[in-house]
Design goal:
elongated; alpha/beta
């Protein structure tokens, strides 16, 4: 859960329109980075490192070969050619992981494999393709497996080319030196970072865990994909979209099946989910309809009797346990929003509108930044990146006065242009699937002519 007591949303004012920036500031004020924990390397993938990691040993820890071939002294192969090869006595094999190493003396060579330590006396490695591979014939294409021809760890090898000192040798510490900074605090651990931690011997690492985000949609009309539709029903797409978006943001997402328009059922479902949630996200039921039950359900979920109450009426609600504010925002789509903290651990909750585009745009603007803040990412990585681009369209785009509009777009980085995708309707999910950005029309603009420069939020 959050590492310190969160701020609560400011008191609601049903008659005012909140700006996008005000609402986001309230959301981010209610979340804190999660407490660090020690995790095994693979469990730490996608998490943010909370400590500097230094290198305990040089990497690689010893001089080793970068080729399959022969470890030699440079003086012994000086002037070697196919016509006049250097003939060397093979004193043994050096495989990766070898402990006891043969010493390479004058006129000698050791057969060596990629990654194997350079034996004493050797100064360079000649690739097997520069030799006859110990066969007495022409240039070798490769080595005969040791199990098939153990005698080739001895005998003679003819070397057809000279080699300079340290040729095909990876020097000890050429990657990192002991004491170097391997990874700095704040690094997000992806596969390359996990590889480095394993390479320097770290089995665990201290990180902020990925937030656990529970997503649930509301509506008696919702049917799970794969089930038959009946009259008046539609498939639940929102919970799938938002759970996928939560994962994309870096969270561990739990999708709850659609909940019917019943306040008691919704309340019970949310209470059951609190145990595994660092953040709760609902979609639907936040407007002004007779069946918008999210407001009703969230008025007391997770509450406990206050110490001074007699156990009756609204005095039973512990206002410090649950504070959800439902408000209207000066934006399109996504005007109705709900936000606050819930339950004894002050778990952040965001209640998003139910129209598919409205819920997704609201997620990108408010939920994704909350998730990234819980992860402990720097402020520069909390929001989606944005660019300026020129509108490419056949006609002007309209926008309602006093609303910040977010239109779906297709961004062309090469030309620096953005084109609208689909209409402005908040139900047009097919258009959303083909968009890779959101075009932002400011509150004081009601018409955007082709050729106008706009802010564009990049979604990919």
């Amino acid at each position: 859960m959050s590492s310190s007591a969160p701020q609560h949303p400011r008191p609601a004012d049903g008659h005012r329109l909140w700006s996008v920036d005000e609402h986001l500031a309230d959301v981010l004020g209610a979340v804190r980075p999660l407490e660090p924990i020690e995790l095994q390397l693979l469990d730490a993938q996608g998490c943010v490192l909370v400590e500097d990691v230094t290198v305990p040993v040089a990497l690689p820890p010893f001089d080793n070969s970068s080729m399959d071939g022969y470890a030699v002294r440079t003086a012994d192969v000086q002037g070697a050619s196919e016509e006049f090869p250097a003939v060397l006595a093979v004193v043994g094999d050096v495989a990766a992981g070898s402990g006891e190493l043969p010493t390479v003396g004058p006129g000698e060579a050791a057969r060596i494999m990629t990654g194997a330590p350079l034996p004493p006396g050797a100064e360079a490695v000649v690739p097997v393709e520069w030799t006859d591979g110990g066969t007495g014939g022409g240039a070798a294409a490769g080595m005969t497996p040791a199990s098939a021809a153990p005698e080739q760890a001895g005998g003679e090898v003819r070397v057809h080319r000279a080699a300079e000192a340290r040729a095909h040798v990876r020097a000890r510490g050429s990657d990192v030196q002991a004491g170097d900074l391997a990874l700095a605090a704040g690094t997000v651990l992806g596969p390359p970072q996990i590889a480095l931690l394993a390479a320097i011997g770290r089995g665990t690492v201290r990180v902020r865990p990925r937030p656990r985000v529970v997503v649930l949609s509301t509506g008696s009309e919702l049917v799970q994909p794969g089930e038959p539709l009946t009259a008046g029903t539609i498939y639940d797409s929102n919970s799938f979209a938002l759970a996928a978006a939560a994962r994309d943001a870096g969270a561990i997402a739990y999708r709850v099946g659609a909940v019917a328009d019943d306040a008691d059922t919704l309340r019970s479902t949310i209470e059951d989910q609190l145990i595994r949630a660092d953040l709760l996200v609902t979609t639907g039921g936040v407007s002004v309809g007779a069946y918008d039950v999210v407001k009703e359900a969230l008025s007391s979920v997770g509450s406990a009797p206050s110490s001074g109450s007699a156990g009756t009426g609204e005095d039973d609600v512990d206002v410090d346990a649950t504070r959800i504010d439902f408000r209207k925002l000066a934006m399109q789509p996504g005007k109705p929003q709900g936000f606050g903290t819930i339950g004894p651990d002050h778990t952040p909750l965001l209640a998003l509108p139910g129209n598919p585009v409205s819920s997704y745009v609201s997620f990108e603007l408010f939920v994704r930044p909350a998730i990234r803040t819980l992860m402990g990412l720097p402020e520069s990585e909390v929001r989606r990146p944005s660019v300026r681009a020129v509108l490419k369209a056949d006609q002007a785009l309209g926008s309602p006065a006093g609303r910040r509009q977010f239109l779906r777009g297709k961004y062309d980085a090469e030309s620096g242009t953005v084109s609208p995708v689909g209409g402005s309707g908040s139900h047009l999910i097919a258009a959303l699937a083909h968009a890779d950005s959101l075009m932002v029309v400011p509150e004081d603009v009601t018409s955007v002519e082709p050729g106008t420069e706009l802010e564009v939020v990049l979604l990919g």
